Amino acid sequence: MTSETVLELRGVSRCFGANTVLDHVDISVKAGSFTALLGASGCGKSTTLRIMAGLEQPSAGQVLLNGENVSDKTAHERNVAMVFQSYALYPHLTVAQNMALPLAMRHLSVFGRLPGVGRLSPGSGGVRKMIHEKVGHAAEILGLEPYLDRKPGTLSGGQKQRVALGRALVRDPVLFLLDEPLSNLDARLRIRMRAELSALHKETGRPFVYVTHDQAEAMAMADQVVVMIGGQVAQAGSPRSLYEKPASKEVAAFIGTNAINLFRPEDGVMGLHPAADRHVIGLRPEHVSPAEDGTLEAWLETAEFLGSEILLGLRTTTGKFVRAIAADDYCTPPPGSLIRLGFTPDRLHAFSGESGLRVELGA
Amino acid sequence: MIRRSLSRGVSLFLLIVGAMGILLPFIWMVSLAFKPRDEIFSADIDLLPTRLEWNNFVVAMTQTDVPLYLMNGLVVVLGILVFQILFTVPCAYALVQRRTRWRTVVFACVLAALLVPFHVTAIPIFLGFAEMGILNTYWALILPFIPTAFGIFLFRQFFSQMPKDLFDAARVDGMGEMEIVWRVAFPLALPAATAFAIFSVTAHWNDLFWPLIAITDPELATPPRGILYFRDQESGDDVGPLMAAALIITAPLVLAFLLAQRKFTQGLSAGGLKG
Asked: Where is the ABC transporter domain (chain A) (predicted)?
C-alpha cells in the first residue's frame, strides 16, 4: 500500500448566496485509506462529499484527483462511485439492471443502451457478456445472487444497501464515496454491515470516504477521521490521535462514547490541575473513577449498570455535573453519598478558555 | 343501527337519482342506437327495443364518414398527447432540478397560464394560423394544445416528490440530464402520465370548439365535428344510425377509461427508496 494521495481538496469553499457552508476545507485522501468525515448535521460533511463526487461545484478552491484538477468534471468523468443514505435504487429496474446500469452507461453507445433494440447494436454482445459477468461477480461478493431478478421494492433495508454497494462495486471506481450508508439500518444490522464494509474496503483496495454523524462508526472503521464543525475541518487524524489529543474542546466533546467532562474555570472545581483556573479542563468519564485517595469529591446522583461497567452521574460540591465510570464489580453506594474520585493525570486535556483550542500543559 | 342504515339508504337513493340524471341521455342514446326505425318515433317510451337493430351500426360505419372521423380523432388525440409528453416532461423536470433564480418566476407563469381559458387565445391563434396558411391541416388541430400548463404543473408536482438522491445517483452512474428524464423520472411518473393522458385524450377527443374554428374540410373532421356534418347532411332525419355513430364515438373513451382505471389505482411502488 503506497501513501500516494488519490484525492485532495485544496482550500475548498462553498457558498449558497450569503451562506457559507464550507470554509477553506483541506482534505487529502491517501491510496487505500478509509477516511471518515465526521460531524453533526449541517456541518458541511455531505456537501464536502458531493463536491468530491462532482455533484456540486466548489465556489473556491480545487479538487485534485490523482494530481489532476477535476473541479469542473462530472462524477462520471471522475469515475467515482457514490452510495446514498436513501440507497437511491431505481425502483422500476431489477437488482441486476440496477447494478448493470453504470457499466452500460460507460461501455455501451447511446444506441446500444436503448432497451430492446440495443441488442442489435454492433459489438454490444461482448460488452453485454462482460457486464453480465461483472454483475454476477459483485452479486456473489455481496450475497445478492438469489435477488438479481427482484425489484428493489421487495427487498429489506440491508439487501437494498447491498445492492447500492454492488452498483458502486461493479464499475471499479477510483474512489468510493459513502453518504451515511448505514443510518437507515437497525442497530444490529448496522454493526454487521460495518464489518462487511471494512472487509469490502480491504478487498477492493480503493480509498473509501465515509460520511457519518456517528463517532463510534467513524472510529471503528476509519484510519483517518476528519472532524468537521461549522463548515471547517476541526481536526483530521487517526482515531487514536483524535481521542488522545483532541485539537479543541469541540472535537473532544464529539469523540468518545461517553461525553467528556469539561470543567470551566468558573465551575470552581478544585483538585484537578494547577492550570484549572485559567483553562478549560477536559476529562473523559472512562478516566475518572471512584478512588479512596481521589482528589475530587462529589455526590452520587445516578448509576447506570451497563454490564461491563457502571456509568455514574455525580455532582460536585460546587454544583458541577460529572460523569465517571466504575468497574462492574464496584459496590455502588446509595444516591446522595459523597464519593471521592480519582483520575489519571496524563489523560487530562486542557483547552484555552477563549478559543477552545488545545493547550499543552507542561509535565 | 336503524338510523345508520336509514342514512345509508337515503344517500344511496340520492346518488342513484343523481347518476340517473346524468346517465339518462346516455342510456337513451344507447337505446335508440339499437332500435329499429319505426320504434324510435313511436309515441310510447320503451327503453328496451323489441328487437336489436344492428343495421344502424352497419349504416353508420359503411354509408357515412364515421370511420374517417374516428381515424382523424385518433391522429389528433395521439399527436397532441405524444407532443405534450415530449415537451412537458423535460420542462417539468427542469423546473424541479434547475436551481436558477428564475425558477419561481417561471413556475408562477405556469400557474398563471393555468388560469387562462383556451377560448381567450383561440382568436389570436386562429389569425396566426391563417397567416401561416396551416388552417385545415392536422397541425392546426394539434399545435395549439402542445404547450400545456396543466401538464407541466402535474409533472412538476410529481417530480418534486421524488427523492433528489435518485437523480444524483443517476448522474454518478453517468446519465445525462435528458437520459435521467426519460430513463428514471418518466418511468417513475407513469401514474401521473396515465392520469394526464386520460385528461388530455378526453378533452381533445370531445373538443368541438376548436375544430369548428380551425377546420372547414370534412376530410379532417374530428368525431364531434363529424357528427355535426352527419346531422346536417344525408342522414339528418335518420336518428338510429346517428345514435349508433355517437355510440361508436363515445365507446373508445369509455373503454379506455375502464382499462386505465386499474392502472390509476395501481399506483407505483416507490420501493427501492427510503422506507
From this structure: 7-255
State whether residue A214 is helix, strand or coil: coil
**Closest chain A C-alpha to B134 CA, distance in angstroms:** 35
Asked if A85 and B163 come within 8 Å (Cβ–Cβ), the reply is: no
Q: Does A90 map to a domain?
A: no
ipTM above 0.85, yes or no: no
Q: Rg of chain A's alpha carbons, rounded to an integer?
A: 25
Is A220's pLDDT higher than 80? yes
Which has the closest alpha carbon to B205: B145, B270, B117? Answer: B145
Q: What's the rounded Cα separation, in Å, for the pair B89 and B87?
A: 6
Last residue of a domain, one of A119, A153, A171: A171
| CATH, domain range B64-266 | 1.10.3720.10
Q: Cβ distance A322 to A287 under 8 Å?
A: no
**Nearest CB to B187: which of A81, A92, A101?**
A92
pLDDT greater than 90 at residue A189: no
Distance from CA of A90 to the nearest CA of B (A): 6
A88–B168 CB contact, under 8 Å: yes
A85 in Cβ contact with A180 (< 8 Å): yes
Q: Where in A60-133 does DSSP place strands (E)? A: 60-65, 68-69, 80-83
Give contacts of B178 with chain A, Cβ < 8 Å: none
